[in-house]
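User: quick one, sequence for these tokens?
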């Protein structure tokens, strides 16, 4: 039987709806608020590169696709960005609004499946962190990212690679890791982008969320700048 990719993504949304309701904090529940949203404490290398690139720039507009509970979106809002956070789950959207209020910032939380999202504006920063391994047709979403990023704007993207087989504990819903030189690599290798950071992380132990036995993932991570001139 052929799998319907859109139905598969609907199953992913239903899964995260349940998990976001089950846990007060699903992503990195052991972090303090200071650690979660800090822009001065140690960050992953892709975030460190993004912060280096935007340091000193006037904050503009930012987009977070597949925003989850809003950690990345809130971090950008704390830097002064006007942030749109697109999230497919109702409870995740509520959490984004609630958690952003708790730290005194405004995030425009948009409840919408990313397949249905089309931006009418462009953004200085676009985040797509942990979304694309749940998407079969990656090029569809990658082109949305391209259209949403203004010339000279930045994109941070992270997803699972297939270097590590999908752990059995994650086969609750369909997942589609990319190959290390697959759709995402091809997307950023074109002359439409200047790659600022690229890493293939392999076999990393996952501690990011509760409810699953210990397991490992491999990741593809990029930070890139869209070629062209700023307005």
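Assistant:
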């Amino acid at each position: 039987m052929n799998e319907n990719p859109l139905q598969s993504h609907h199953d992913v949304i239903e899964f995260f709806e349940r998990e976001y309701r089950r846990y007060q904090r699903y992503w990195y529940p052991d972090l303090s608020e200071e650690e979660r949203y800090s822009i001065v404490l140690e960050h992953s290398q892709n975030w460190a590169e993004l912060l280096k690139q935007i340091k000193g720039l006037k904050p503009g507009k930012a987009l977070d696709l597949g925003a989850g509970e809003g950690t990345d979106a809130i971090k950008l809002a704390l830097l002064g960005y006007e942030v749109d956070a697109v999230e497919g789950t109702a409870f995740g959207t509520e959490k984004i609004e609630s958690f952003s209020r708790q730290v005194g910032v405004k995030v425009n939380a948009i409840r919408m499946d990313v397949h249905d999202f089309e931006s009418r504006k462009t953004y200085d920063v676009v985040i797509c962190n942990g979304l694309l391994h749940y998407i079969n047709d990656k090029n569809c979403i990658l082109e949305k990212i391209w259209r949403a990023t203004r010339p000279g704007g930045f994109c941070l993207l992270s997803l699972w690679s297939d270097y590590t087989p999908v752990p059995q504990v994650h086969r609750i819903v369909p997942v589609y890791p990319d190959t290390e030189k697959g759709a995402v690599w091809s997307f950023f290798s074109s002359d439409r982008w200047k790659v600022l950071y690229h890493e293939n992380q392999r076999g990393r132990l996952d501690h990011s969320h509760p409810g699953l036995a210990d397991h490992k993932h491999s990741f593809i991570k990029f930070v890139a700048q869209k070629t062209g001139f700023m307005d």
